[in-house]
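Hi all, long-time lurker, first post. I run a small reading group and we've been trying to get comfortable going from sequence to structure in the token notation. Rather than ask abstract questions, I figured I'd post a concrete chain and ask someone more experienced to write out its structure so we can walk through it together at our next meeting. Sequence below, copied exactly:
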Amino acid sequence: MEFIPIANPRMTEDEAKAAYDVIKSGWISMGSKVEEFENNIADYLNAKHVIVMNNGTSTLNAALLAMDIRPGDEIIVPSLTYISSANVVQYLGAKLVLCDNDLDTFNVRIEDIKSKITKKTKAFMTVDLKGLPINYDDFVELSKSTGIPFIADSAESFGSTYKGNKVGSQALIHSFSFFANKNMTTGEGGACVTNNDELAKKLRIIRNQGQEGRYNHTHLGNNFRMTDILAAIGIEQLKKIDSILDEKVRLANFYSTKFTENQSVKPPFVPKYVDRPSWYMYGIKVDESCRDKLLNFLENNSIECRLSFPPVHIQPYYKNKYKYINDDFPKAYKSYKEFIDIPIWAGMGDEKQKYIVKKIDDFFSSLKRSQ
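-- Answer (accepted) --
Happy to help. Here is the structure in token form:
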């Protein structure tokens, strides 16, 4: 079997022509294509404001800046997330307050956030890990009852649906990523989505070096601009997102059906409040004692897998800074030690998927014989 990557973006001549046309136009920086891309995303998500930027880390950073987060303010973030969610807190000199997660969904629970709230809490962040939406209604209610705004790091869940609505209008601000391995990609890129007029205005100013009018800098901003070249690619990608997700749903259903026949593999848990995950990644759970052996076995059989993500509290920088130990957030650590992401991408095809399932079955059959 040829090498099977963990992810493989669906790029065609459509994206190539769109990028070429922008280059030939003579205007390649932020311009009309960025505006068109933003409007198309807003229509797709049924959201009021979309502000696209150069990557998903920038969108999170800009979101905190727009919310006037300052040194000493406490921001609650799940430990089980990509490093950007924590780093953006550090950039502003705010205090990072980590919390644990649910073992079934890998996502943060309402009680995880509640237990970390203090008088200094200025915001909390949720994460739709692997493209599975959190239970947004719970967190919206918590935000209302406490007066603490929340940011949704929805980097991995573009196109997912929660209780009949696309993820993107539930939180005060949603942050999406369009990195190369996402379901919809511009290579690098991201977007802030909000229904709040004031925040949208500030986000646009922050994105463009804090400018209101040419060379009139009213805020401390940054160069978070997306180029028209990338926006043109994104416009074409957005046209394909539903067909991509439909195919990934089919692939996920096949995996889940097959893995229910293997007692050594636990397929992803999808709560009833989620209509459609984005299936950014398909993460199975196996016993910690054999996880790394399975990873090596699959990669030796040309199947790329990944362990996403090591919790923030075990990352060397944060471990050294805050003196964390592994068991400070036991569910995050346990989740990380048990899960493994396997390939799921539109265009993968039945043959490759059946091969992956067979190799996982072969591994556990061999393991049982050796015991």
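A couple of things your group might point at:
The chain has a mean pLDDT of 97.
The chain is about 40% helix and 15% strand.
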